[in-house]
Amino acid sequence: MTENQNRLAEAAALATQFRDKRDAEPYLLERSADALSSVDLDGESEATRAPTQRLVLHAWLQLLHQIDDAKAIGFDPTRVPPRNVSPPQEDGRVLLPGAAPEQIGTPRYAKPIARRWKSIAAIRSTSTARST
Predict the structure, then answer these.
(1) Residue 39 backbone dihedrals phi, psi, to 5 degrees
(2) Burial class, 130, CB count within 10 angstroms (exposed 0-12 / middle 13-18 / buried 19+)
(3) Under a CB-based contact definition with an 8 Å cutoff, are residues 62 and 15 in contact?
């Protein structure tokens, strides 16, 4: 296998890994793009240059398709989740947002916190995919 074939195989393997572990490892798309960027078409002979160019172009188009698929539909980067969740009012006490969960005696506080963290995780994964 030539060096360019190794790079194309590496890019394909990383893209496949991303497809399997999309939410856990968004950096795989970036590594796949790096592998494709390192293909040296000038080093190819006249007989192999055109087929290698087609393979590289096809790999780039597949990678771009995966990046588009990874973006969340309707993602709005200007809509960020609140910095802190406002705790519920209990027994006439009003706690400030960001109060520790142990200061609050109700489990209702856990659901808004979980939604906030889920929203932050979604924004991070989509932002990572957009910056790739």
Answers:
(1) -70, 130
(2) middle
(3) yes
Short-list 62, 59, 61, 72, CA closest to 128: 72
Number of helices and strands (H, E) in the chain? 4, 0
Residue 77 CB partners (closer than 8 Å, separation 6+): 123, 127, 130
pLDDT above 60: residue 130:
no
State whether residue 74 is helix, strand or coil.
coil
Round the average pLDDT of the chain to a whole number and report it. 79
User: What does R_g of the chain's alpha carbons equal in angstroms?
Assistant: 23
Q: Report pLDDT for 11.
A: 92
Report pTM. 0.55
Which residue bears the tokens 């009003």? Answer: 94
